[in-house]
Design goal:
Blueprint: H1 2-24, H2 44-67, H3 74-93, H4 102-120
Helix pairs in contact: 2-3
Length: 121
């Protein structure tokens, strides 16, 4: 069992190093004092809270960016944001080997998100 943990940590390190290299090609580097990030994701509740907080942070950024634009341009920005986040989702899923099949999970999340506004009315 200990060997499995060591291998999992090694795989995590290898994939994350590659992720860092790829993000740097976009000029993106991790901030040393990033606020609001998770300290651990070792429980289902911690993971859910992190994902909910990240969703709200992204949604807040989208709303604020669109709200700063003049009338007639705001929903165009929202459409562009949807495309950018889809691109980001694709980029993130590409960081994993195909057998992880994260793409299917992400596609399901897109469908869930698409139906969410109807449940909020």
């Amino acid at each position: 069992m200990c060997g499995d943990l060591d291998e999992q940590e090694w795989i995590d390190d290898e994939l994350f190093e590659r992720f860092i290299e790829l993000t740097q090609r976009f000029g993106v580097v991790a901030e040393s004092n990033a606020n609001g990030g998770p300290s651990q994701l070792d429980s289902e509740d911690a993971r859910k809270k992190y994902m909910d907080d990240l969703f709200k942070a992204g949604l807040t950024r989208c709303l604020n960016d669109a709200a700063s634009l003049p009338n007639g341009e705001r929903m165009d920005a929202v459409a562009g944001q949807a495309i950018v986040f889809a691109r980001l989702a694709g980029f993130l899923t590409a960081q994993f080997p195909p057998e992880v099949d994260l793409f299917r999970t992400v596609t399901g999340a897109v469908f869930d998100g698409h139906s969410e506004p109807a449940t909020l009315r």
